[in-house]
Design a protein that fits this description.
By secondary structure, the protein is an alpha+beta fold. It has two helices and eight strands; from the N terminus they run E-E-E-H-E-E-E-E-H-E.
Length: 119
């Protein structure tokens, strides 16, 4: 993991993250957003994941927990790609497992780009 965000607790009881690491997974050939969301949902429905989409947003933002690896991260489909957003305690093995399962589910090639913002 090139960098991890820092978790800060606000005086009002909220949580904010400083910095960000995100892995952008782009299929080749491109898939429609609905196809990406369906493939991601199929992968997340596997019994190794606990997931939730608790936000009222135009597109789902999932908080995913990989039980065997005991790690959590956020996942969103945006602009024709799947984004894996690292949390302070995210383990690389959990991201790798989800990526491997997504590749198997879609049968297309993928390009991976890692973006780090250390704010």
């Amino acid at each position: 993991m090139p960098a991890r965000p820092e978790r800060n607790y606000t005086p009002t009881g909220g949580v904010e993250y400083v910095g960000e690491t995100a892995f952008h997974l782009k299929p080749d050939p491109e898939l429609a957003v609905d196809e990406l969301e369906a493939a991601l949902a199929d992968v997340l429905d596997a019994d190794r994941y606990v997931r939730g989409d608790w936000f009222d947003l135009p597109r789902p933002v999932f908080l995913v927990h990989d039980e065997p690896v005991s790690t959590s991260f956020r996942v969103v489909v945006r602009s024709g790609r799947v984004e894996l957003h690292v949390l302070p305690s995210t383990e690389a093995a959990g991201l790798r497992e989800l990526f491997d399962r997504l590749r198997a589910e879609t049968d297309v090639d993928w390009t991976v780009d890692c973006r780090v913002d250390q704010a």
